[in-house]
From TrEMBL:
Organism, scientific name: Powellomyces hirtus
Family, as annotated: Belongs to the damage-control phosphatase family. Sugar phosphate phosphatase III subfamily.
Protein's UniProt name: Sugar phosphate phosphatase
Cofactor dependence: Mn(2+); Ni(2+)
Enzyme class: hydrolase
PANTHER family, sorted: DAMAGE-CONTROL PHOSPHATASE ARMT1
Residues covered by the Damage-control phosphatase ARMT1-like metal-binding domain: 29-439
Signal peptide (UniProt feature, chain positions): none
GO MF, one annotated term: fructose 6-phosphate aldolase activity
UniProt function note: Metal-dependent phosphatase that shows phosphatase activity against several substrates, including fructose-1-phosphate and fructose-6-phosphate. Its preference for fructose-1-phosphate, a strong glycating agent that causes DNA damage rather than a canonical yeast metabolite, suggests a damage-control function in hexose phosphate metabolism.
Swiss-Prot/TrEMBL keywords: Hydrolase, Manganese, Metal-binding
């Protein structure tokens, strides 16, 4: 029987952020951002259908027989109709609909939906439901629309029009970072310099999140390169933008790990994934990690989140680019990473939990074998804003709430040490000093959501 671990009321007595709270980013997201994302999905399918009738190479339909192409086109039109219906219902705050496909997670989604309810005992609606649930529910409904078809089951509606162009807009940054990785690998470094390099790679991993596609829908390739390219001097400037900086605690903890296991719970594909893999590479090279376990999403999620397909597509695309421009350094990096995967030094894993309607407070109770396995790790690295929201249950916390308190059920002796590397793109923030939020409000009124401020929050294993 699926759990009824609902998201409201909040288990710590903190009110959940909801889309009906005007003046919050939750309201802006449900009102404006989610309809735009759905509309882009409609546009993407329309382009696919147009390509299928005008070219033999630009569409997934190119290898199909004529009858199958016709059937695929009919399904594509139905997908557009269903996505448009979803936009209509969302904008009018209609009740959230059950998941009606046969995927194994449908029962869990529907159980949580039933437990939520809306105002005065009515059904849960798009704006009246906790934001974390309604936003995740939208992506799960998108999955349903595709998975019930014959020809679009495995189609990632975000890949061709959004993820892939973002990747190709980032290759110059990838080339430069590959050179940096090579330079530090072949250099003779004392412990102080190794610590400096580790802090560098942590920051590359942190700030790679600035190019989240669900927020930066219209960023230019030149702007993206500027965001991603950082020298040591500019990293020092960026460090001033880290409003909670536990990097010393993190580095001290990592320095005590020898040939251990470190887990990455991934966020975005594209440059952020690449920066994460550079950090994972350094952890192996420096003797910290004997194994790095990399957790990707099972289905397309929050536009830019990394799926298994994205992971391998990225390696193939980088290798293709390196061959085209004859970049031996970049090519060698990919060969190293493929060797890690073949030997099991790196392990890519996909578990349904990461796209279930639960916060990470429920990992110990709902995570099953995933959680049992993760507890053998020496460090959990949670990447990005959504993972941060799920770690702190997306509550309307006071900003001075200790991180350990906001972690709730995740803060227990069984949980390995963990760190959140997050650029701020939503309302929940904890662990600030008294008065710090007020100072940030004056310096930058949009500091919570514009991605210009970062957090490195570390939590040691809780005492027995």
């Amino acid at each position: 029987m699926p759990s009824r671990s609902d998201l409201a009321p909040h288990p710590a007595g903190v009110s959940p952020l909801c889309g009906n709270q005007k003046g919050t980013f939750a309201y802006t997201t449900v009102k404006d951002r989610l309809p735009v994302i759905l509309t882009k999905c409609v546009d993407s399918i329309s382009r696919e259908l147009h390509a299928a009738t005008t070219t033999t190479t630009a569409s997934d339909a190119s290898s199909l027989a004529p009858l199958a192409q016709t059937e695929r086109a009919t399904e594509g039109k139905q997908i557009i109709a269903e996505l448009s219906k979803l936009v209509y219902e969302l904008q009018r705050d209609r009740p959230l609909q059950r998941i009606n496909d046969t995927e194994e997670d449908a029962a869990s989604w529907n159980s949580v939906l039933e437990s939520l309810g809306g105002k005065e005992g009515g059904p849960a609606t798009w704006f009246g439901t906790p934001w974390l649930f309604s936003e995740c529910h939208m992506y799960r409904k998108i999955r349903e629309i595709f998975v019930v078809t014959n020809y679009w089951k495995d189609h990632d509606v975000f890949a061709r029009q959004q993820k892939e162009p973002s990747f190709w807009g980032s290759v110059k940054s990838m080339e430069e970072l590959a050179k940096h990785v090579k330079d530090v690998e072949v250099s003779t470094l004392d412990e102080e310099l190794k610590t400096h390099v580790l802090r560098e790679f942590v920051q590359f991993s942190l700030w790679g999140n600035q190019t989240d596609l669900s927020l930066l829908q219209n960023v230019s390739h030149a702007d993206m390169h500027k965001l991603q390219t950082s020298t040591s001097a500019s990293l020092q400037q960026l460090e001033e933008k880290i409003i909670v900086n536990d990097s010393k605690l993190l580095v001290d903890a990592i320095s005590k790990i020898k040939n251990g296991r470190i887990d990455f719970i991934l966020d975005n594909a594209g440059f952020e994934l690449y920066a994460d893999l550079c950090l994972a590479d350094w952890l192996v090279h420096s003797g910290v990690a004997k194994q790095v376990v990399i957790h990707a999403k099972r289905i397309p999620w929050f536009v830019s989140d990394t799926t298994e397909r994205d992971f391998y597509w990225t390696l193939d695309a980088i290798q293709q680019h390196a061959t085209t421009i004859r970049d031996d350094t970049l090519h060698s990096r990919i060969q190293t990473w493929r060797a890690y995967l073949e030997k099991g030094t790196w392990k890519l894993t996909v578990d349904p939990f990461w796209t279930l309607p639960y916060s990470f407070w429920q990992l110990p109770t709902e995570g099953g074998n995933l959680w049992d396995d993760m507890c053998t790790s020496q460090l959990l690295i949670f990447k990005g804003d959504l993972n941060y929201r799920k770690c702190v249950y997306d509550g309307n916390w006071a900003t001075t709430t200790p991180f350990s308190e906001a972690l709730g059920g995740l803060n227990n002796p069984q949980t390995p040490p963990l760190v959140c590397l997050r650029t701020c793109k939503s309302d929940p923030v904890v662990g600030l000093r008294p008065g710090q939020a007020e100072d940030l409000d004056k310096a930058d009124p949009d500091w919570r959501v514009n991605g210009k401020w970062g957090m490195i929050q570390y939590q040691a294993r809780a005492a027995q």
